[in-house]
Structure prediction request, 391 residues.
Amino acid sequence: MTNSNCYIDRLPDDALRMIFESICEKDQATFHDYSMQNEVQKGRYWDDWHQDQGWYDESEKEFNGPPPSALIAAMRVCKRWRCLMSQIPTLWTVLQISFGDCAASLEKLVLALTLHILSHLVNLRIHYCTGGGNINTATTLHVLLQLLGALVNLQTLALELDMDPPEDIMSPIALPRLHYLAMKSRKMDCWIADFLHYVHMPNLRILTLDGVLDQLNVVEIQFEGILQELIRLTDKNSSSSLLELDELHLVNFAHRADLQLLRRLYKQMTSVKVLTLGLEALFGDDAFAMGLLPTSRGLADFPFLGLRTLIVFGIPRSFVRRIVLERLSLVGPLEELYYQEPDSRPVPEEEEEDIIVPDDWQHQVEKYHRIDYLESDRYCDVVSRQWSYLA
Prediction:
């Protein structure tokens, strides 16, 4: 039966708009139900990258994968539906995409969405895992850049990309309204520095980097490239666009970093008011915390001069005490400190004779909170402070 003879094609535009809005709500409800079912029954989140690598096995994709979007399917019914749906901005403000080794699903989605639809998108989250390795990474990244380049009104972007693209594949794009950016990757040294270099984000205020802590498969990455790019973007003497963050969240890091680079970056990030360092570093490298300590130059090299809220996990009490007291003496107290002590950690040699840390620092912040149980180690739960407290 052709569309011209189909009864549903005779529905007026107003009725179709109501149907499409209902489909959109149903899509979101179905996705939520799917996520909750996986969390309760399997202890999995829809965006997990599981250590057994079975999450994206071909035999499990259909069973475990997120439900397909009925809204996207409806766009393919006929030209009239596609045209009408593209004229309803509320259908396309939020989009979540999850796919595995093949770029086909992302490519089909980009082809299905017109530039008019993409211009309405405000909140985008893309979750992509290569599983056993991806030979089409270049194609995937090309399609992804094509998608991002059309998102002129995007305000929130989460890129959870586990891939190793070829060098020199990035090209300049602009996200002029982007306010919040989260990037999660076990291979962040392979693409995040280039992303920060080529993507113009003049209104970015909140940046989250998630290193994906995996205790069964610890791979230490080179973080210096990302630090160098952040240093360039926050250098007031640079000709490049200045990055002025309000919040910086470094989550699930097990990476060593050059202390001098960190101190230079911390000094330049004068606008940051909220900083998260967590979760516990597997290598016992406290450079990220040490960088918070003032140097002998005092205010001239002071880290995060505008910092008001500090959230730290797994850092020894001695470090936290020094951070609180040494900052206090130069710039006054922190407004808030959220702290979760490490469960077990080797004591540094210089502390072996003085393991007991005085309790003279907790009341030197305006509000002190002891973090107890974390709902999960996912960056979205950490950043939104989904945890319980100790008295």
